[in-house]
Design brief:
The chain is an alpha+beta fold. It has three helices and ten strands; from the N terminus they run αββββββαβββαβ. Strands 4, 5, 6, 7, 8, 9 and 10 form a seven-stranded mixed β-sheet that branches. α2 (about 115-125) packs antiparallel against α3. The longest helix has 25 residues, at about 5-30. It is globular and about 50 Å long.
Length: about 190
């Protein structure tokens, strides 16, 4: 991506920081919890659902009770909508929550489930190989909603979890390489 990519990355990093602060605080407040656990079936395989069928990570699960603790962003960075022209691809970013990003992609004529599944599983860490950082977080995405297709537009939601801003820029690059013409995140 061209010279605007660092500005885009900085903006995404700032949006991410607000949520990660809340999530890492919850980790400190629930020390006896599984952090960002992947939900699994009785035989230990990843539980998958949706279109495309993807796994899901909870924010925290309290070890003693099995209670799931969901951390929803309470603060959102407010800014004017920004547009970034990256080669032949335009990215529009409006104020959004890192754990609930609404995504709309245009210029794609067919749903390429493999594209989203491959991207998602790379950042989900299906084998749980990542080690926690200093805040106890694993740098992983949590969920991808069903993808709705309307003409040449795809619409879906992503909970980027504790994944770095690179997860979002990687998604943008993947969609651009698939022939998308624009992406909106709000």
């Amino acid at each position: 991506m061209d010279q605007l990519a660092p500005q885009l990355h900085d903006l995404l990093s700032t949006v991410r920081a607000l949520y990660v602060l809340e999530l890492s605080e919850a980790v400190r407040n629930h020390p006896e919890s599984f952090v960002e656990p992947a939900l699994r079936t009785a035989d230990g395989t990843l539980a998958r659902e949706g279109t495309p069928p993807t796994p899901y990570r909870a924010d925290l699960i309290v070890k003693s009770t099995g209670e799931t603790v969901q951390i929803d962003s309470t603060r959102r960075l407010t800014f004017r909508d920004a547009a970034f022209d990256l080669n032949r691809f335009t990215v529009h970013i409006g104020s959004f929550f890192w754990d609930c990003a609404n995504v709309r992609v245009t210029g794609v004529t067919a749903l390429e489930q493999d594209l989203l599944t491959t991207w998602f599983e790379r950042w989900f860490d299906t084998e749980d190989e990542r080690e926690p950082d200093q805040t106890g977080l694993f740098g992983v995405v949590h969920s991808l909603s069903d993808v709705e297709v309307a003409g040449d537009a795809w619409m879906f939601q992503i909970d980027f979890g504790s994944a770095p801003a690179d997860a979002c820029t990687d998604l943008i690059a993947s969609l651009e390489s698939a022939g998308a013409s624009s992406l909106e995140v709000s």
